[in-house]
Write a structure and sequence with these properties.
By secondary structure, this protein is mainly alpha-helical. 70% of the residues lie in helices and 0% in strands. It has one domain. It has six helices and no strands. Helix 2 crosses helix 3, helix 3 packs across helix 5 and helix 4 packs across helix 5.
């Protein structure tokens, strides 16, 4: 059974090409990601890992789209850290930095760009899942 995408092509067309996502959507995403990171400091759940993996995957897609650069390869390091039960202090700070960057990106890029990135991420991950 195929998973339903988070956003449709109509969502892309209807999204603002100039304004960021609405503040409530941005705040909801950031609250969810920060709560997941807090949980990972002690004992993470599969959902916590999935939420943080989504943030990292979206950032990677934005890099692929040319909106960001990851010269220090922090996103690769973050994906490796997600395979552990809990994070050490260095990994926590790394994820805090990634989430700060994600917040800045959501606050500055147009809603349409963010939705396109989300759709591309889901498509890429779906293809990787099928290949595995």
């Amino acid at each position: 059974m195929k998973n339903k995408p988070t956003y449709t092509h109509m969502d892309v067309l209807m999204a603002s090409p100039t304004e960021p996502l609405p503040p409530k959507k941005r705040q909801y995403q950031m609250d969810l990601m920060r709560k997941s990171l807090d949980n990972c400091k002690t004992k993470s759940t599969l959902m916590d890992i999935a939420v943080l993996a989504t943030a990292v995957d979206l950032m990677a897609t934005l890099c692929d789209m040319g909106h960001l650069q990851d010269a220090e390869k922090a996103l690769e390091d973050a994906m490796c850290a997600l395979m552990q039960d809990n994070f050490n202090d260095i990994e926590v700070r790394m994820f805090e930095g990634i989430l700060e960057d994600y917040q800045m990106v959501m606050d500055s890029l147009p809603a349409r760009t963010m939705i396109v990135a989300h759709r591309k991420t889901e498509t890429r991950l779906g293809k990787q899942k099928v290949a595995a």
